[in-house]
Amino acid sequence: MFVFVTDWITKRLAVEHLSPAHVPHEVIGDFVRFTLAYNRDAAMGLSLGGYSRIGFTITAIIVLGILGYIYYKLRPGAKGEAAALGLIAAGALGNLTDRLTSPLGVVDFIDIGIGNTRFWTFNVADSAVSVGAVLLIILSRGDEKREQRQMTVR
Asked: pTM score > 0.70 for this model?
C-alpha cells in the first residue's frame, strides 16, 4: 500500500509542478532530472500501437491475478518473496490506475542520464516492479542452491 500511495502522490505532484511536459528540471545536475512525460505504451517503449491502452490494461489485470495466485501458494514464512510480489503488484496497480483514469497515459517523471544519453523516463511504480522482479530472481536463485545442497546431503 505504501508503494502504491507514494506512486500516486508523486505522479500528482509531477503533473502539478513539472508541467508542461518534456521540460527538464535538474535535481542532481544533468544526471538526475524530473521531466514530466506521459506514456501510452509500456516500459521501454513497448507498444501495441492503437491498442496499447486496452492491451496493457488487460495485461496488468492478468498479471495482478497471477501474482495473487503465486502469493496464495507461497510457503509459510516466505517473507522476502511476499515482499517482492507486493512490490511488483503495487507497481502494476499504480500504472494500471493511470491507464484507467487518464487518456494521456502513465505519468513518468524520473529522468536519469548524462547529456543526450538518457534512460527511459520512469516513475515510482516502474521502480517498484523492477526492484521486486530482481528481488524475486535473487530469492529464487537462493532457493535453487538450497535445494541442490539438500539433494546432495541425502
From this structure: yes
